Amino acid sequence: MYISILSIGNEIVKGRTVNTNASEISSFFTSMGFRINYVLSCRDIPDDIGKSLEFLLANSDVIITTGGLGPTVDDITISSIASHLGYELTKNEEAFKAIEFKFKKRGLELTPERIKMAMMPVTAGIIKNTVGTAPGMNIRHKGKIIFSIPGVPSEMRAMLPEISNTIGSSGMVYYSIEFQLSGVMESTISPIVKNVMEKHEDALNIKTHPESIKQSIPMITVEIYGFGKNRKELETIAQDMKHEILLELDKINKN
Fold first, then answer.
1. pTM for the whole thing?
2. Residues paired with 35 in a beta bridge
């Protein structure tokens, strides 16, 4: 099962807001054995949202959108999704009651802007917002599932477990290890990494991450990671790969 993330908001696209939501969502579902294949950002423009959604629907099983669920004029995520997929918006009674309760508790009236947060496609289900006000949404479309959740990090974070419960288990395990090498350049380790991966038939991926150079000494973090059915088998393969890399580097240093 492939999951994609669509972060919606002018503030993200123009760089005002750092997109930490996408990183956190990716990490959350990767750790549960799901593959993240696309992370996109787009402006608060219906056509941009529609085009992004269309691409992700063609390439993913689950799409998670963040942002654009509030009461302001630029909060158009759900209406844009509904329009693009051909669904009419209607007042979701469950969402409306939750919003009504929260505002009445504060002694505030239900303005059209606040009621707007309860407007969803008729087939949509809601994701309760235990932290803020705007509820999230999930909708099934042609065998795919679209989740729309708020952009406020604390609200987004609180909804992830419910999304996880809805999509169920991935049936896969994710495993990764990292180790650092000092005084090794990427160009030196690159052929070693290639040979080790080929030897193990790409059972796991190896990625090198250059770190800052201290006193002209290169630093590299080596990440070995991947998916499988058995955690113990992945751990064994990862440790074998690490041992083989270190062994080959030791041979180079001795020559």
1. 0.92
2. 2
Task: Detail the DSSP E strand segments found in the chain.
Answer: 2-8, 35-42, 62-66, 89-91, 119-121, 125-127, 136-141, 144-149, 173-182, 205-210, 219-228
Q: 């690159």: which residue's tokens?
A: 190
Q: pLDDT tens, 76-90?
A: 999 999 999 999 999
Q: Which residues contact 77 (CB under 8 A, 6 or more apart)?
A: 8, 49, 65, 67, 68, 69, 148
Q: Are residues 145 and 179 both part of a single domain? A: no
Interatomic CA distance for residues 216 and 229, integer angstroms: 42
pLDDT for 215 equals: 63
Counting Cα atoms < 13 Å in the Cβ hemisphere of 30 gives 16
Q: In angstroms, rounded to a whole number, what is the distance separating the alpha carbons of residues 150 and 155? A: 6
User: Of 115, 146, 167, which one is at a domain's C-terminal end?
Assistant: 167
147 and 185 in a single domain? The answer is: no
Instruction: Give the tens place of pLDDT for each residue, 118-134.
Output: 999 999 999 999 999 99
Range of the domain at 113: 2-167
Asked if 103 and 110 count as a contact pair (C-beta separation under 8 A), the reply is yes
* Residue type present at position 67: G
